[in-house]
Amino acid sequence: MSKFTFHTIESAPQDSKAILEGAKKQMGAIPNLYAAMAESPEILKAYMQLHQAFTATSFNAEELTVVWQTINVEHECHYCVPAHTGIAHSMKVDPAITEALRNSQPMPNAKLQALHEFTLAVVRQRGNVTEEQMTAFFDAGYVQKQVLEIILGLSQKVISNYVNHVAETPVDDMFKKFAWTK
Q1: Which of 26, 29, 113, 141 is exposed most, by the fewest CB atoms within 10 A?
Q2: Which residues lie below 8 Å from residue 33, measured CB to CB, with a gap of 6+?
């Protein structure tokens, strides 16, 4: 059982209240991840800013999903894999992509496979990718900017995945149908 507080709007520190109110208005509920992060307004704000920045990158919905879910699965995040499955559905991402990512299976096309493999390399090698890995990524049609954008997505996911690990964040009701274990 988690020793972390999962805040409501009423119990949250003052500087977290507006973010929680906005989430509730937008989603109809406060995600448990936000409720856990609310204890530290700084991490909640940073996470929200990184999320907004990453979704504004050059990646399309499928590519955003590949980066997010590759990292979530690699980090074995019991919360983010189901949450991003639901998010991918709402973004109209092909369910074949989501299922392949959840089950560590090949992507449906070579370009997404290259993105998946390069993202895994960045995570596993802590950014110390080889020249061959970089060349394969570029040969698949990606550019230098997207290397940096993967690092941005990884920054966002480190925050959420690690918070979920330490807080033992319960999966929200809206994502329970997408429950996942490695």
Answers
A1: 26
A2: 79, 80, 83, 160, 163, 164, 169
Answer yes or no: is 169 within a domain: yes
CA–CA distance, 172 with 164 (Å, rounded to integer) = 12
- Residue 10 contacts by C-beta under 8 Å, 6 or more apart in sequence? none
SS3 annotation, 8-38 = CCCCCCHHHHHHHHHHHHHHCCCCHHHHHHC
Number of other residues whose CB lies within 10 A of the CB of residue 20: 22
DSSP state of 107: -
The encoded tokens of residue 181 equal 């274990």
Query: Does residue 3 lie within any of the structural domains?
Result: no
Residues of the chain with pLDDT under 50: none
Please give the residue range of the domain that contains residue 125: 58-178
- Here the tokens at position 47 are 């996470």
pLDDT at site 182: 87
